[in-house]
Amino acid sequence: MNILIRRMSSSFQKAIDLLPPSLNWIDNNFVSGTGSNLDVVNKATGTTVMTSGSASDADVDRAVASSHDAFQSFRDLSAPERGLLLLKAATLLEERTTEFAHLETLDTGKPFYESVMDIGTAVECLRLIGGLAQNYHGNHYDMSGSFAYTSREPLGVIGGIGPWNYPLQTACWKVAPALACGNAMVYKCSEYTPLSTVAFAALLKEAGVPAGVFNVVAGGGSVGAALTNHKDVSKVSFTGSVPTGKRIMSSCSESLKKVTLELGGKSPLVVFEDVNMRNAVSTAMLANFFSQGAVCSNGTRVFVQRSIAKEFTAQLVERTKKLIVGNPMNEDTKVGATICQMQYDKILEYLDVARAEGAEVLCGGGAVTPDDPDLAGGLYIAPTVLGGCTDDMTVVKEEVFGPVLSLLIFDTEEEVIARANNTHFGLGAAVCTDNLSRAYRVISKIEAGSCNVNTYNAYPAVLPFGGYKNSGIGRELGEECLNYYSQTKAVYVETGDPWCPFE
């Protein structure tokens, strides 16, 4: 049974009016989960807006069985037909950008303008993959009379597990290639941010996606484990933390399930002295303060060449202090609410450790209490710049997943490349310089999969996204991602008499 609480600040009433009847979606219908109750919280106010049953193991079984049945016929649709479904979904989602952005902001606490951007990137993904599906094919080989060919075939039922920071965007990054290649998918949305994903499932139905092809199960780690361990799931695509990703990979190894893992990061942003200072500061802010700093690819280690460090720091601190923290529905808000108490406490603990280890808080550094009394139950942290940092500090080595930027000083190109690579992570990186030869040279030596020059977190859908080292396996987006949701069949066709040495 779902409980809706409608006494809410008018800022969020539209999102409240859009709440789905339940958080699980199976066979193209909303389904009440039979697991424990799951509270949906307005992150800005800390108020519970909906309570619904999470998925039980039996619900996961039902969802996988539904997808397994649907896969048998969906795989036989032509690639252009499957692509057309994604293109229809893209059009519908674009038309409802405002509605989905309201749900996303309620669920994540991020500023509304960011949610609008996230819906836009989801639409971009659906359009790209829907178009690529029209021409996704194998190869033909002439063998002097005989011939051979390869074809790309689907894997079966894909288990998708999404994060809380980009709920809808990440769902689209996974469901688009899965369906384009002819698979069915059971998707576990984060227990913290389930709303937009289950609403998107209903939109896919409207676009014409058959029942069972995309099912959604809501809940915590036990739901993800039931999905990961299910015998009828052929692949798991996971976005989240490194420890959880390692556990999923270990579990999948028992049955040799394929995996795509997009995990954490501690990415470097290298700022050389030959830069446009304002643009470089903008890049550092882009690399740290979107989505309350909860971005896996963020460039939280900002290396600045010594000759410009003083001026760069002064401009960065001045601009960071101007960022407004508060109601994510307000147009001037740039930093919204933290996702949950556990994450809030973790970020503040990292800041305490940073101070103890010698870092200097140049701005921010702690909790913020907005003036609006409606926001009293929300959890807010000031965007923070730390100076005096060294490579061995905990806050420099570990992923904080909050609005915390660490400044580090360097002298030479060779030095900063070595320091940038001194990490177990390898997701993102960026270089700021007006010397394109230097940019190319340095980026080519940095051990990271998704890189920028003179900007940050710019990942258009046409480019594959993913990391090196502990930051993951496989790629999302781009044409390359289709290879991770399909498998190759090779066929040799003899047109004459087969050669045989046996009488």
Short structural description:
This protein is of the alpha/beta class and 503 residues long. It is built from 15 helices and 23 strands.
Layout: helices, strands, pairs:
Layout: E1 3-4, H1 13-17, E2 24-26, E3 29-31, E4 37-42, E5 47-53, H2 57-74, H3 79-95, H4 97-108, H5 112-132, E6 140-143, E7 146-154, E8 157-161, H6 167-180, E9 184-189, H7 195-207, E10 214-218, H8 221-228, E11 235-239, H9 242-253, E12 258-262, E13 268-271, H10 277-286, E14 301-305, H11 306-321, H12 341-356, E15 360-363, E16 367-368, E17 380-381, E18 384-387, H13 394-397, E19 404-410, H14 413-420, E20 428-432, H15 436-445, E21 450-453, E22 472-473, E23 486-493
Parallel strand pairs: 8-9, 8-11, 9-10, 11-12, 13-14, 13-20, 14-19, 18-19, 20-21
Antiparallel strand pairs: 1-5, 2-3, 4-5, 6-7, 7-23, 12-22, 15-18, 16-17
Helix pairs in contact: 2-8, 3-5, 3-7, 4-5, 5-6, 10-11
Structure description:
This protein is of the alpha/beta class. 37% of the residues lie in helices and 21% in strands. It contains 15 helices and 23 strands. Strands 15-18-19-14-13-20-21 form a seven-stranded mixed β-sheet, with helices on both faces. Strands 10-9-8-11-12-22 form a six-stranded mixed β-sheet, with helices on both faces. Strands 1-5-4 form a three-stranded antiparallel β-sheet, with helices on one face. Strand 9, helix 7 and strand 10 (214-218) form a beta-alpha-beta unit. The longest helix is centred in the N-terminal third of the chain and has 21 residues, at 112-132.
